[in-house]
Amino acid sequence: MPHVTRRAALQLSVAASLAGVGAGAQAQPAASPLTLWYKTPATVWTEALPLGNGRLGAMVYGGVTREEIQLNEDTLWAGGPYDPVHKGAVANLAEVRRLIFAGQYLEADALIEKGMMAQPERQMSYQTVGSLRLTTGVSQMCSDYRRELDLDRAVCTVNYTQDGVAYTREVFVSPVDQVLVVRLSADKPGCLNLHAEYDTPQRAGVAVEEAQTLVLKGTNTGQQGIDASLVYESRLLARATGGKSEAGDRELLITGADEIVLLVAMATSFKTWHDVSADPTAANKAVLTAAAGKSYDDLLKAHIAEHQRLFRRVSIDLGSTDDATDPTDVRISKSMTRPDPALSALYYQFGRYLMISSSRPGTQAAGLQGVWNDKLNAPWGGKYTININTEMNYWLAEPGNLSECTGPLVDLVKDIARRGEETAREHYGARGWVCHHNTDIWRATAPVDAAKYGQWPLGGAWLCTHLWEHYLFTGDTAFLKDVYPVLKGASQFFVDFLVAEPKHGWLVTCPSMSPEHTHAAGTMICAGPTMDNQILRDLFDLTVKAANILKTDKAFAKTIAATRARLAPDQIGAQGQLQEWLEDWDATAVDLHHRHVSHLYGLFPSHQINIHDTPELAAAARRSLEIRGDQATGWGTAWRINLWARLGDGDHAHEVMRFLLGPERTYPNMFDAHPPFQIDGNFGGANAVMEMLIQAWDGRIMPLPALPGAWPSGSIAGLRLRGGIGADMVWRTGELVSLRLTSNAAATVAVQYKDQSLLLKFKAGVPVTLLHSAGSLSIA
Ligand code: FUC
After folding, report:
1. 407 with 175: CB under 8 angstroms?
2. DSSP for 328-370, written as a single string
3. Of 779, 743, 780, 739, which is closest to residue 762 (Cα–Cα)?
């Protein structure tokens, strides 16, 4: 975008040094345990603070002279509706299988590359809208600077004082009114000046429309030969109290105001993955007309109420130290060497905050960066990588009492189930549906990114377990009925796709891989990796259970059960480890410390392997984890914490957590570092906090299964457990004190704490409190 020339009186102090911020700072107010706060503005994106309402995202830098608010709208992706299915790919399937079973893995890889990959072979990227740039005319030299993100109110606030005037800026993104709201105020009248403009790397123009309305309008960009087909718009309405308001060609200018409120609407022409005919201008006008009819206080009040409806469902206290009063970036920088249990609690609640802010019902599912991205080509396209990342994004939603936030994921799975039917047919000659290791807003399902990354047909199957989990946490049979065809279609695909391997006759996936780990042959391509067998055991089990609950498909359920019985078993290899592949290739794999720990899916998120029922396999999984090592990229580290929690080793889990929360894996704004930023580690790490505190599956609840010594006393309230059970828990000096459970439905559940077990019979909605004292469990 061309440089805006008309800056009038606001040019003043732009060049002033950042060092000016904080000069003469006085004592800072104490931080609440639910606040991220800083003494200086952000200078880079990973210091800026995230706001969002599921659909709209914003990153607030908090500059004094110049504020940047980077903007996102969750349907602004590159390209347009497209069909990447490789028609006739199935013609190569038999030969690929022959090559794999003959041990000619590189040749199989080459043939897949040549004849079975998606066209185009890469998917579309999630894209930025651009930035709102505000120039305030206030010099950088100020005192009492503070910027914060209050997780409890979902409001970002910037405060500073200059020349005896105290300035306040508040920013939030309302889920109620669908606008970004910025308010600038000062404690003396007539002090506010503002120059507002848009800036974007997209093909877009900026125009002033009517009084005080600035409009950024453009198109997305094409990628990989897929044409740009979206129109998008961001529309800003400025309301000033007092002072003078003017407009240039491409900017708004306000001088001498008492208060300024900016309302920003954003929309694109996206309707569905196959329909881009929406009118963003009409949508934005309607949103702004409605929002402009409300006072700032009313907008704020409604926003906070809706946010707190979700956010306040869970509270957590892991204890606190003096470090908890430091600015958040300081705490992160010290966290690997000093105890700061409240930082783990903050990280947990930040995870819940990010889920609420990036995945509300009716919006797009949270991608690799949630709803936040400042680029046209985001890292890995900012899309949905479903060989771990998207699943990890949603691990915390159900137990963290944000069940409705899974709505966008459910919508995504329903879409890919439709699109994946053609992929199943054309690539494998199979019924049902399939999705490989990635998808995007256009719901592409064919293999992408090179054979050795993309030829993994289990992505859709893994996502199906999330639909089942939603049922387990809610007991919602109508939901189960609605998604049953999706589950059935996924199972149907594998009934057709599985093939008997020559050595034992086990049914295996082929071609596939253990994501994204290269075995000694120099490719990832193989048959029957452990993870696939584990995912399929879960998929087949849940499909049979769903069919039984819904009293349908008896014959099909029998077929699936019979197919499941022929899957390759988990195997223990020569190092005492859980084998990652059908053959014991683990010791010769290319990267012994690889970030993916795919074969440990059975331990977590699944519980097929656990220390109670399958102790030998659990010990083998532990051995694999030890060999893999504790430190990985952000999400790899987060996965490891959950696994150690499932192994009942709280201290080890906590050690890995310290690494996740340290400056190598957590940016100053608390975003997870893959690096670069990927949000999965935030969600996975937050889930790990819950896994350390309480676990529940198959009618068994296990309080404090992996409590680390670092969190001796604490409490958590409002958690949800499988079986539709709510849990509040208190512990002291490393021992359970009380556990209050409330079941949605009549149920019998065993509570297992250390070596004791109690059978509880629930009546729907009637709480049962367990007490633990002097080493014994009792019902209050
Ligand atoms: C998988 C991972 C990468 C990255 C990408 C988005 O391919 O192996 O590390 O997280 O997803």
Report:
1. no
2. HHHHHHHTTTS--HHHHHHHHHHHHHHHHHH--TTSPPPBTTB
3. 743
Collapsing DSSP to helix, strand or coil, 433 comes out as: coil
Distance from C-alpha of 518 to C-alpha of 529, rounded to nearest angstrom: 12
Terminal alpha carbon distance of the chain: 67
Q: What is the pLDDT of residues 242-286, one digit of tens each?
A: 999 999 999 999 999 999 999 999 999 999 999 999 999 999 999
Contact criterion met (CB below 8 Å) for 494 and 536: yes
What is the total residue count of the chain?
780
What local confidence, expressed as pLDDT, does residue 32 receive?
A: 86
- Average pLDDT value for residue range 639-649: 98
Percent of the chain at pLDDT exceeding 70: 96
The residue to mutate among 377, 436, 674, having the most atoms of ligand 1 within 8 angstroms of its beta carbon, is 674
Pocket flag, ligand 1, residue 389 (CB < 6 Å): yes
- Based on the number of CB atoms within 10 Å of its own CB, is 773 exposed (0-12), middle (13-18) or buried (19 or more)? exposed
Q: How far is the CA of 263 from the centre of ligand 1 (A)?
A: 36
Report the pLDDT value the prediction gives residue 147, as an integer from 0 to 100.
98
Ligand 1 atom closest to residue 633's alpha carbon, by position in its atom list: 9
Tell me the C-alpha distance between 92 and 102, whole Å.
16
Tell whether ligand 1 has an atom less than 6 A from the beta carbon of residue 393.
Answer: no
Query: Average of pLDDT values for 331-349?
Result: 96
- The CA distance from 354 to 339, in Å, is 24
Write the pLDDT tens digit of every residue in 98-110.
999 999 999 999 9
